[in-house]
Automatic annotation (TrEMBL):
Gene that this sequence comes from: TOMM40L
Segments forming a coiled coil: none
GO MF annotation terms: protein transmembrane transporter activity
Protein name, as recorded: Translocase of outer mitochondrial membrane 40 like
Gene3D superfamilies: Porin
């Protein structure tokens, strides 16, 4: 159930492959109407994007645009800690009249060298209605099959997700999301997760709120399962910072993280760093190798409590 809930309710771009709408600029509205609050998946995205992605070993990514509708990429990852793998990724871009993001993928497929498949589909049924489908396999076994329908009104968003329905085992997971713009900077809503199986049945309600200003965004999710709070602040055009607090009632653990992003346009470099309460310090440097169509990625993460070090080097071509 954890993988399904991570796809349905986990914040940030890490858990959802589609480039959904960026955080709405509520301070730019001049017509007096409240804006659409966006998707529930994107509540913490502004803060999440500041933190570096962990990198370990050697990774090479080659991207190729075959046409205006198709993109493919090849990923080779060599590691001494985790199993090495090769992954093939393909995207089909949407071109329907209802899509506002013309470059957003409508179909995504990934398969690695172990035979695991990850497939996603996004369909704009109308200007306000979107449908998503997710299928995941772990080698020869299905892990996740998920269906989501989202409706975006003028000032609210409602979504319903059905995950892993199984008639024989009499099990299903239902997730409902709702967000409402209360004012130009305030968004309130919630998430209801219901799961049923032969051995257990229950539900978890989580309330969510977000307050936005031109240079900062504060977001809070709180419920029976725990709490997740984040704060994002753009100091200037080059520096962005973010703070996250996560608490889980199931594991009885809390984590506080601080991250920052520094952009150096003249040097074609972006640096992201982080430190958290678990004594983990890390940073990732991205350097655009102009005039070559390639980006060099170097990263290191140190776990002082566990006395572990992870160092990674990557090249992104295309």
């Amino acid at each position: 159930m954890g993988s399904v809930l991570a796809l349905s309710s986990g914040p940030g771009h890490q858990n959802w492959p589609f480039s959904t709408d960026p955080p709405p600029s509520r301070w730019d509205r001049r017509d007096g109407r409240l804006p659409n609050p966006g998707s529930f998946h994107s509540l913490h995205r502004s803060c999440k994007d500041v933190f570096p992605q962990q990198i370990e070993g050697v990774k090479m990514i080659i991207n190729k645009t075959l046409s205006s509708f198709f993109k493919v990429s090849h990923t080779l990852h060599l590691s001494a800690v985790s199993p090495s793998y090769y992954r093939f990724h393909v995207e089909h871009l949407q071109s329907d009249d209802y899509s506002k993001d013309k470059d957003a993928p409508a179909l995504i497929g990934e398969m690695d060298s172990s035979g695991s498949l990850n497939a996603h589909a996004l369909l704009h049924l109308s200007e306000r209605v979107r449908a998503r489908t997710v299928f995941q396999t772990q080698q020869s076994q299905f892990v996740t099959w998920q269906f989501e329908t989202e409706y975006r009104g003028n000032d609210f968003t409602a979504a319903v997700t059905v995950a892993n329905p199984d008639v024989l085992r009499e099990s299903v997971i239902l997730v409902a999301h709702f967000l409402q713009s209360v004012s130009s900077g305030l968004v309130l809503g919630g998430e209801l997760v219901y799961h049923r199986g032969r051995a257990e049945e229950g539900g978890i309600l989580t309330l969510a709120g977000q307050y936005s200003r031109p240079n900062w965004v504060a977001t809070l999710n709180a419920g029976k399962g725990g709490a997740h709070a984040s704060y994002y602040h753009r100091a200037n055009k080059q520096i962005q910072v973010g703070v996250e607090f996560e608490a889980s009632t199931r594991t009885q653990e809390t984590t506080t993280s601080f991250g920052y992003q520094m952009e150096l346009p003249e040097a074609n470099m972006v640096f992201r760093g982080m430190i958290n309460s678990r004594c983990i310090i890390g940073g990732v440097l991205e350097k655009r190798l102009t005039p070559l169509p390639a980006t060099l990625i170097m990263g290191a993460f140190v776990n002082h409590r566990g006395d572990k070090l992870q160092v990674g080097l990557g090249v992104n071509v295309g």
